Every structure is written in C-alpha cells, then in structure tokens.
Amino acid sequence: MRRPATLSTFTTSLSRSWTRQLPAALIVAALSTSCADAGAPKLRPSAEPVAAAMQGAASLAGGPAGAPPIVTTPTVTTPTVTTPSIAPSPSIAPTPTTPVAPDPAVAPASPVPAPPAPLEIAAPALPATVGAISVKAELSNTHVLMPGDGKVSVVAELAAAVPDFPTAGPRLSLNLALVIDRSGSMRGDKMDETKEAARKLVEQLLPDDTLSIVSYSDDVRVDLPASKLSAAQREAAYDAIARMQPSGSTNLSGGLARGQEEVQRNLSKGQVNRVILMSDGLANRGVTDTDAIAQSAQRDAQQGISVTTIGVGTDYNEDLMTAVADKASGNYYFVAGATAIPGVLTTELGKMAATVAQDARVEFRLDDGIELAQVYGYTFTRMGDVVSVPLAELFAGQKRSMALQVAVPVLREGLLRVGELTVTYTDRYKGPITETRAVEVTVTRDPKLVEAGRNRSVDERLVEVQAAAVLNQAANLVKEGRHGDAQKLILENTENFRGKAAGMGGSGRIQAQIENLTRTGTVFESAAAPSAAPAAAAEAVKRVKAESFDLAR
Fold first, then answer.
1. Do 443 and 412 touch, CB atoms closer than 8 A?
2. 54 backbone dihedrals φ, ψ, rounded to 5°
3. How many other C-beta atoms can be found within 10 angstroms of the C-beta atom of residue 339?
4. CA-to-CA distance for 70 and 479, rounded, in angstroms?
5. What one-character-per-residue DSSP string does 175-189 give?
C-alpha cells in the first residue's frame, strides 16, 4: 500500500515598474545574493553570482551540463512529452562512493586517474529540460562493493531557468499576508524600520495582488483584511501600518494562524500564496511549543500556503523560526540590525515575483529490498516505499538539491535498480510537468570498479550537507554554553574534510567548507571571550544557524 513520504540578503532596489515587467537584469541581480544573514558579514562566500545564473540559464536551454548522470533509464513526461529511456553502455560498470551531501553547483573535473578503456563511461546525454526546471539525478558511485554495507547516496538537483522576462508576460499574482510582531520589544528602530519596510512592500505590489496585514502582541489583530489592492485599499494599507504601536507580549502562534486564515480566504492555484512572519522575541502567549507551531504551518503548506520567517535581533527563537520555514517550504532570514529589514522584505518580494515553478515536489520510490538510511537537509514524509520532499515555489535562477542515502542488497553481482526519482511541478508558462529518472547501480566484487565509479560532484555536495549539519550542531552546543565541545566538533570535522579533499586531489568546494568551519570556530571563540558583548554568543548562534539552513538546501 502506498503512503506519502517526507524529506527536509540579496538586497536590491525593487522598483514598481520592475515588479510589473520583471526585467531580467534586476531579477538575476536579486537572485544572485544570499539573504540568510541580512546586513551582516557572511561565514561563507555568496552562493551564486549573476554571471553564473545567466550561464546556468543558457545551459538549461541545451540540457544539463556536467558528468553523465547515473540515472540509467530516465523518462521525462509532461502532458504531451515523453523522452526515450537511456540505458548505460554495455561497457559501463557502475561504481559506489562514500555519501556526502547534495548541491546543484557544477563541480570541477575529477582529478582521479581515468579508468582503463573497458571502464570508460559513454552514456548519452539527457534530453533538454522540458519545463522551467532542469532535473538531474546522480549516485555517489556507479558501483557498490560486494561484500559490503551496500550504502550509496542519491542526489537530485533542480535548477530553475531564467526566462526572458521582458517577453515572458506579467508575473504571477501574489496572495500575501504580512504578519508583524508589535510586542513591546519592537519599540524604537525595530518598529520604525518594520513599518517603513511594510510601506515599501505595499508600494511595489500590483492592483491584482491580494494583501492582508496582521499584527500581534498579547492579542491578534487583522489590520487589513485580505483584498485586492485597489487605490483605496492601498491607502487603507498605508493607514493600517501607520497606526501600529508596540506593546505587550508575543502571541506568535495566533498571528501566524490568522495570517494563514487570511491567505486561505483567497487561496487559488496560479498565484503565490504566502505568509511572511516577522518576530523579534520569544513566543510567550498562545501556543508556544515549537513543534506544535511548525506542524500547524506544515498542514497549511500542504494546501499551498508557504511561510517565510524573518527573525530580528538576538532575542527571538531561531529554532522556531527555522522550523516553521522548513515545514512550510518557505525562506528564513536572520536580521541582525533593524536597518536591514526593508532590504529583506524587498528580497522576499523579488523571489515571489520571479516565481517560475509552483507546487514543486521531489519523490523517490524505493525498489524492493532497498532500505532508506538517511535523508539530508529537508523535512520529508515517507509513505511505504515513497520518500517525498515538498519544495513549493522555485524562482528564476534558483537551484535546490537534496540527498538521501540508501542501502542496497549485495547478494549477487550485476546491475540493480535502486528506485525512481519523480519531480512534479506547475510550470509558470507550460502548466503541470512530471519528470522521472530511473536510478541503477552495479554490484561488483572489483574494488577498482568501485574506485573508478566515484562521483566527485556528489561527494562534494555531501560534504556541504555534512558541513551544514556540523554548523547547526556546533551552534546548539554554544547555545548550551558548551563552547569547548563546539570547538572540538568543528576541529574534528575540519580534519575529516581535509582528508576527503586530499583523497580527491584537491577540491575547491570542500576547501570552502573547511574555511567556513574555521571561521565559525573563530566567531564562536570570540563570542565566548570575557570581553565579548553580552549578546555576542546569541548573535553568533543565529548567524551560524541561518548559514546552516541555506547550505543544507
């Protein structure tokens, strides 16, 4: 019986004319910068430069680039398109490798010596993407060793194209609820900057957009009921924002629930349905349990309402805000200073305006005898033999990757089907799209085949996912006051990554994570110093957790 399954700033000036016509230059500029830590120095380099996004769009037109995928019988289906199956060359022998973590970036050529002629891989290229998203599935190794534990990792990479916006027509309409914390701790610059940011957001929305504004403290108030932004309604929005005054406690759960209700009133496909939740403090009224709030957000996400969370300052609960964003398929931002709030809202609006795919979901169906060992980085569900990860929307130029580790039975040599990867989404211009990839591995007694079958790009991505987990765990240790344990964890994994990079003959991507962990250790060490500001450790924890959230995806 089949049951469902589960996986887990750029700031740019966004003019009203841009949100109407979406010029490519601003879209790409907007999408090229990481926003996890608004207004603060990064712990790792910014993810994707503008040039890379444009080059990525160009490559999508001709099909996925990079090493031949491990998927041996891919079939791509849309309402009208089916691609032929692709089988491996008879001379190809699949090879396994140590699982790490997923990433859409194109890895440098492997320094591992080329295998002898009989092992040379000559698989045909996959067909060009049929929709807005290019899909690639790869194994950490084409072979698994017999005898052995049979473990191998599968990485799915999704890359959203950058369309020609001037000719692509108007953007999707937005159905947006802005949920604002007006508790007493928001007094001063936080409330002033939040109100200014909200005004700018209202200014940039279109008449066909639906907006509601909810604020919360001890009570929850609908300051602007959901409605289309006519001229009169826009003025009503400005007035509602101006009237907000901070006082009282933080009924975050009540504010979130009411925001979801407002979006639900006008819920429909073909538009972006989202709640933007802002808070600077701890939930201390209404429901305060992190899991309960996150599960509630997830239930509404299953109906198509995503939630983006914005944490302001150093007093809010970052675990709650990341959990809600994760469960509800939204984005998460840490804002260290109030002056960065307008930029973050502009960033979020830019992403929504550039949406090219909706209702995106990745499913992996395990074949008989295949065991799921681990899913990296995402909230996921599992129903029977199907593991499912909801992604909601993807914006132009965005890349998402996810990885899972499986154990295959190593009972006899030969080609073994691991499972089937299915990606479904609604293309902004073409409608519903479904793409499938069959994933196969070869069981062998020959360790040379295993060594030759390692996938460098997948191994590098697995290291990045592992680094994200280390960052999050180290931040938790610092939060508990266990600074020594945090430093030990960072040091051990830094050495581990050095060994992995050396085994590849060097790796820029792994070196970036070595430097990332080293910087993080320095940041935590400084925050623990007697001379450090009282809030230094709290800020460092939030900064690192935001970094981890993005890196895992």
1. yes
2. -65, -40
3. 15
4. 41
5. EEEEEEE-SGGGTTH
Query: Among 334, 353, 372, which residue terminates a domain?
Result: 353
Q: How many domains does the chain have?
A: 3
Picking from 161, 178, 175, the residue whose alpha carbon sits closest to that of residue 215 is 178
Establish if 13 belongs to a structural domain.
no
Q: Is a pLDDT exceeding 50 seen at residue 36?
A: no
Q: Please check whether residues 230 and 374 belong to one and the same domain.
A: no
14 located within any domain: no
- Please state the separation of Cα 34 from the chain's center in Å: 11
Are residue 289 and residue 410 in the same domain, yes or no?
Answer: no
Where is 379: in which H helix or E strand?
A: strand 379-383
Report whether 394 contacts 12 (CB < 8 A). no
Spatial CA neighbour of 440 closest among 127, 131, 123: 123
Whether 312 contacts 38, CB under 8 Å: no
Separation in Å, CA 36 to CA 244, 308, 340, 462, 493: 27, 12, 12, 21, 23
Predicted pLDDT at 120: 29
Give Cα separations from 316 to 254, 298, 312, 330, 538 (angstroms): 16, 21, 7, 18, 10
What DSSP line would sit under 13-48, residue for residue?
Answer: ---HHHHHH--HHHHHHHHTS--TEETS--SS--S-
Contact 337, 39 (CB under 8 A): yes
Last residue of a domain, one of 453, 471, 497: 453
Instruction: Report pLDDT digits (tens) over 502-518.
Output: 999 999 999 999 999 99
Same domain, 542 and 517: yes
Is residue 143 located within the same domain as residue 179? Answer: no
Contacts of 432 (CB under 8 A, 6+ apart): 78, 79, 424, 425, 426
Averaged pLDDT score across all residues of the chain: 80
Nearest to 268 by CA among 340, 204, 174: 174
Range of the domain at 133: 70-111+127-160+356-453
**Which strands form 133-139's sheet, in the order they lie side by side?**
133-139, 151-160, 399-407, 371-376
- In tens, the pLDDT along 325-381 reads 999 999 999 999 889 999 999 999 999 999 999 999 999 999 999 999 999 988 899
The partner residues of 160 in beta bridges, in order of sequence, read 133
∠ CA 131-156-360, rounded to 5° = 45
Whole-number Å distance between alpha carbons of 459 and 108: 12
Is 40 inside any structural domain?
no
Has residue 548 got a pLDDT over 90? yes
- The C-alpha angle with vertex 140 and arms to 138 and 146, in degrees rounded to 5, equals 125
- Asked, as a colleague might, if the bond just before 147 is cis with ω within 30 of 0, I would say yes
Which of 327, 264, 265 has the alpha carbon at shortest distance from 292? 327
